Amino acid sequence: MNICRQTTIAVSIAASVLLGACSSSPSTTTVYPTSQGDYSNYGMIESIQIVQMSSENKGPGAGAIVGGIVGGILGNQVGGGTGNTLATAAGVVGGAVVGNNIEKNNRNQQVREAYQISVRLDNGVYQTVVQDNIADLRVGNRVYVKNNYVYRN
Description:
Residues 1-26 form the signal peptide. Its main location: membrane. It comes from Undibacterium hunanense. There is one protein chain. This protein has one domain (3-152). Helices cover 39% and strands 25% of the residues. It has helices at 3-21, 62-76, 82-106, and strands spanning 42-54, 111-121, 126-131, 142-146, 149-152. It has a five-stranded antiparallel β-sheet with strand order 3-2-1-4-5, with no helix packed on it. Strand 4 (142-146) and strand 5 form a beta hairpin.
């Protein structure tokens, strides 16, 4: 194997790992920090909504890595010189995307219900908390927010 081919394979593997690391997942909890005293943690519940939470791992897995490697190997079989390098890089990216999608479709997604509670704090700031249960919380209740959890006051 010549040095160019070794470099191409190394670049292909690195590109597939980096592609997988670029994915991100949206946050399900919005917390607006307060800078006032302890009273700023007290407020009133404005709304409570049931939301669906997925407990699947959102990061890239083996599918993206294996797909990138296979795509790079297949792309490396095409052409020569600069065309070969471009085909290899395209194979890595395409393989990683396809492999990641296949893995996502085969994962067991466990969906659970959670409660999104919007609280208007005494200092006028709105804070949204997502928690697994609401116990005896109702809209209009006076509450205390501590450690991203809502307690009845």
